Amino acid sequence: MKPEWEKTGTNEGTLKFEITTDVVAKGVDHAFNKIKNRIQLPGFRKGKVNRTVYRQFYGDSSLYQEALEDIFPSSYEAAYKEVGIEPVSRPEVTIDEMTEGKPWVLEVKVTVKPEVKLGKYKGVEVEKIDRTVTDEDVDKDIQNRREKEAELVIKDGAAEKGDTVVIDYVGTIDGKEFDGGSAKNYSLSLGSNSFIPGFEDQLVGHKADDKVDVKVTFPKDYQAKDLAGKEAHFAVTVHEIKSKELPKLDDDFAKDLDLDVKTVDELKAKVRENLQNEKNDNAEREMQEAAIHKVLDNAEIKDIPQVMIDDEVNQQIQRFNSALQTRGLTMQMYQQITGTNNDDLRKQYEEEAQDNVKTNLVLEAVVKAEKIKPTKEDIDEEIKNLAKEYQMDEKRVRQTLSDDMLIHDIGVKQAIDLIVDSAKEVPSKEKAKKTTEKKSEGDQK
Length: 445
Description:
Blueprint: E1 4-7, E2 12-19, H1 21-35, H2 51-57, H3 64-83, E3 92-97, E4 104-111, E5 116-117, E6 125-127, H4 135-148, E7 151-154, E8 164-173, E9 176-189, E10 211-217, E11 231-245, H5 251-256, H6 264-298, E12 300-301, H7 306-326, H8 331-338, H9 342-369, H10 376-390, H11 394-400, H12 403-422, E13 424-426, H13 429-444
Parallel strand pairs: 6-13
Antiparallel strand pairs: 1-2, 2-4, 3-4, 5-12, 7-11, 8-9, 8-11, 10-11
Helix pairs in contact: 1-3, 4-6, 7-9, 9-12, 10-11, 10-12
């Protein structure tokens, strides 16, 4: 019999197919070979029982479950590919018939990828992104570089925003000190917003040796829940006030920046070049995101299966867990610090996971519509790039990633390139409106 697919819901159904007698026979033979070394019967040494004797004692039916586990994956894959579905859930298997000498007939309940109806995906319009680097941009960048090279010098007079104050402080709530609320000789940059909102502002205008009673209220969403929303008093002693002394903008400063320049003019030119490259890269990235979002908006998907979203959430959490481990943290430590649990983490990733799944489904639909088929050369190039990116041997990359995975990922990248390369940049609505207004004014004159 040919495989049969019957839909029972939007993205659910039952796949019925058979496993032929020759495949069953091979599976049963393989199952016997796997277990024969463990078999011991009277009159036979362990592992020396032949198939005929085993059949007399137990029958081949005792090998069926082991055989099914061996032959099911490839038979199932061939069946669902023949009917043109893509399962996304674990199969729920029911065996209709499992008789010696006959094909095995199976029914599998499964959730499949949803149908994607593509709208316009080539030639979508995206707003043109300004890539202009102004003199102000250059001056701001150089000023930031001077700020980074600035020295802190003790100053007389009152503290201002941008100054650094060296302070002792003792925090209390309802007259009682609390954990983490005290420090000595702490250097605090006013305007850095590194303390509770309002704390730094109350030190502006004070001088060295001043004692200041700072009153603040912890935010309601403060990470330490025992402090959230409570009013606190900090007894602060100001020891020193330091201001930034910026280096002079001259040729010596330019040479010290390790930008391979010798003069201020060369520095400005180099900074402009770097800013322009950065703006171009950011614009390309924004244009790509805008084009893909347009394609997503134009596409229609009915009911993304929850199992796909759950799988994506699991992958996101695994990636987050790996990132924590690189910083010497465990998931348990993170949850203790933030006061969160597994459910909170899953909710945090669910919306992003849904967007990722939709994006991948639509891009896969574009691959299918355009009949994109990566070549062997494309696969070899991808392996080289991945090996270089992750500092791995190319053979290791080939062993880690199957051809199907590589073909999928390369195809999706090529679909993105197709969308972006065909996209049309148009003036933003606001800019177009101003242009129209100017033209109208000119006509009136």
